[in-house]
User: Fold this.
Amino acid sequence: MPRNWSSKALLSLSLVLLSVYCLTPTIGHFDRLRAASEKNQKPLPFYLKLFPDQAIRLGLDLQGGIYVEMEVELDDALRNRSDLFSTEIERLTQKETFSPEKSERVGDSSDIKILLKKEGDREAFNRWIHDHYDNVLIEKRESRADKIIVFRLTDVFASKTKDQAVKQALETVRNRIDRYGVSEPTIVRLGSNRLSIELPGMTDPDRALNLIKKGGRLEFRLVDDKLHDEEIRKLVIETRTTLQLPETYTEETINKLNEYLKDKIPEDSEILFEVQYDPITKKSVGGIPYLLKKKAEVTGDMLKNAQVNVHDNEPYVSLSFNPLGTRLFGELTKANIGKRLAIILDGNVTKAPVIKSEIPSGEAQITLGFGDYQSVLKEAEDLTLILHEGALPARMKELTKTVVGPSLGRDSIDKGFHISILAAILVVIFMILYYRLSGLLADIALFLNILFMMAILAVFQATLTLPGIAGIVLTIGMAVDANVLIFERMREETRAGKSIRSALEAGYVNASRAIIDSNTTAFLSGIVLYQFGTGPIRGFAVTLMIGIATTLFTAIFVTRLLQEWVIYGLKRERTS
Amino acid sequence: MFQFKGFHFNYVGRRGWFVAFSALTVLASLIIITTKGLNFGTDFKGGTNLQFRFSQTVSESTVRKTLDPLNLGGFSVQKIGKSEENRLIVKMEKHQEESRNLSTQVTEALKKNLGADTVTLEQDETVGPKAGADLRKKAELAIIVSWVLILIYIGFRFDFAFAPGAIVALIHDVILALGGFALTGREISLTVVAAILTIIGYSINDTIIIYDRIRENLQKEIKLSFKDIVNVSINEMFPRTIITSFTVFLVVALMYFFGEGEFQNFGFAMIIGVITGVYSTLSVACPLYIWIKENESLFQKLSTQKSS
Assistant:
């Protein structure tokens, strides 16, 4: 036997045993055993503890679940920021001599328009902004007019805000999902403004999306009673017909409405709707318009706690505020007894009750709509969770969504498995027919190759997807190439008159270079694929790359050991 | 079993035929792609796919009639898998961002018409138009990046004279694969892009194996002319080429004939790729290499003229 043979053989053998060990939880369906003993409240079978915890992780397409890609609307994040600044400026300058008449965000942009009381305040105000908002706000000189200053966010601050918005959105979504309790969610940032969210095992897409997308922006605003309810209703109907707006309550529609009615409603007010839903189809069936003050008196970030309560068989969410919120809420209710206070969630009025008396305790309730007890309770629980985890920094738009049912995944695994087995059998038979003994050795290597691949998938918890199975099938077809190269080389060397032992040596050495070169390029395209793809396609790239690595090892290292054993140990003069 | 002993084929002398054949097929592919166009799937175009499983046989036309009154815009109904599985895919051009309850609407309508227990929504996939367009750009970029990386690797590991042939061969393979998809009207999905990148990896593999042998023989067999060396190298590697492509062909054919949906699409692309991957080495990579080598002095002259 050549030097080191036995130690190399020992290494290979221990790798095989290690692989089998790592794959035992997958093959033995330990997850099912675990679930069963949890269900029956029995202790875990002792041997489960002897093996690793994790089986091969299945992708969403095989396991069932939800995959969504969201875009964080960065301009919305900037607008939210400007909204905050404009109220902040108003509040901070209240006691200054130059306090402006008004400070507000301009239209759809993130610019802030300041209306001064008198032109003479300009210099002092500008100095104040410079002191407090250096590198944040900068004057837009081209928009300067009598008593008006317009500021915009600086580029540096804007890009920082955008970046933070995506990070914060990711964090918020992650917290919400974690709290909701989905096992092993994957939430990652894609590029500059996207989030990819994978929720394996979850099958209620509407609920999941609601949980992810819901802005969670809570506001309490006073109802403006300058116009009568009936007048507002009429105005809305008129506007809808003149502008030919659809019967929807999207932000776009509402914005157009308000824009058109600008001159007919008070300047500091706007119209929002309480949307009514059909309890079964969950489609909006109508909306009650309200004229509301633009300014929010109390907001969601002043919340201390939100929880679900049930009264008269009707679940509702009760809120309690932090000290600041409690004080503001007390003052507000005291000063406005008899008026209506609207509770607004993400731009929609949920309710507008009349203030009957001062509420000094800082507590409020949100009652929820319609439907059966269970679905309202679910809705209340989700809302509590969302309010708890805070509002999203910006709106999010759904880019793609895939929901896979659990049965489909199981079918796909079975089919993929059958094709893999069939592929392996055909390749194995062909190799034995063509290369005889060497072919058998290559087949053993192929078997180990698949074993190692699966073990690596399990150990590194890489995700196996449907295209990933295609990658395994493809590896079965391509893995023999390395051995074919070596065996053909050995035949050539034998034909050139070399003894079987030196042909073996020369065959492996000379063929290895070509094998490594060709596999490196295949690996390169695997890396590109991984970079480009998401979800399932990454699974393919992963099995492809793992397959290349294990192929190199089994074809070059393991078959050589086997060949040496046949030639030196069994003293065979030919192997193929 | 048959062994390729003593097999010899005068490749270099006949390489013109190979080149001509490749030029024709590439031209044909380009014509088909431009006239028939590529059928991009939901992944790239945007839209909604709903996959249903029924507990009884339901014909495509029944589903179509059920859905017609819903005003879904453009949609198609398609059976997938074996007929006893009763699986159908409804593909719609609309995506759910614009009409939120598309999947509930369709599912409810089917349940109402066919009975609530007979219908299961197995997969619901929505792609916004923006995401689709982005993905297409990314796919194109991925293919080009893989070409560039391979070009660099070959230039680095081999002589630079080898690189152009390898890359043109890869471009050739991608065009033919796309031509196959245009001809059959098959859908180009994400999986197909993965297959195309795999074809690139596989085809370059074949080219490199031959190049490696040429490189080795160039250093060894001084007696032979340059063209003879190429000839000998290709002939020496012939058995390997046949055997390896046969085993790969075996498994991808299995995927095509026994797989379904995306698996089948993947198999289809790979079948084209396995075939073109092998002969593009002979019809593109090697002829281009020979041509560059023959005109090496010309290139050198050009480059010295430029620099002086």
About this structure: Residues 169 and 284 of chain B are 5 Å apart (CA to CA). Chain B touches chain A through 72 residues (CB under 8 Å). Chain B has a mean pLDDT of 86. The first strand of chain B starts at residue 39 and ends at 40.
